[in-house]
Amino acid sequence: xxxxxxxxxxxxxxxxxxxxxxxxxxxxxxxxxxxxxxxxxxxxxxxxxxxxxxxxxxxxxxxxxxxxxxxxxxxxxxxxxxxxxxxxxxxxxxxxxxxxxxxxxxxxxxxxxxxxxxxxxxxxxxxxx
Length: 129
Hints:
It is a single chain. By secondary structure, this protein is an all-alpha fold. It has 4 helices and no strands. It is flat.
């Protein structure tokens, strides 16, 4: 019994490592695409900026990574951190890209709302079965 449990833990660790590596590679590729887009055509448009696009696109990458871990039944700190950061990234990036008046920081308000929603979903997923 103990041996099969260690084999299962090894598989879980392997899935987590592969997930982390793929997530980091996807984030780096997205960063490269964002910077390339900034260099090619975004300098003409003041509303678009590579940082906001990187953050807005990095959110779904992190959420897909968290969903992958959740589908494998891996409930770890990595899942929680990816979920929370993904939600914050989406809220901040989309808020920054759609903010027409720079007097009000809508990206922070959007991020707080999305964090509350995400935390409630995670609470339900982890503590209420």
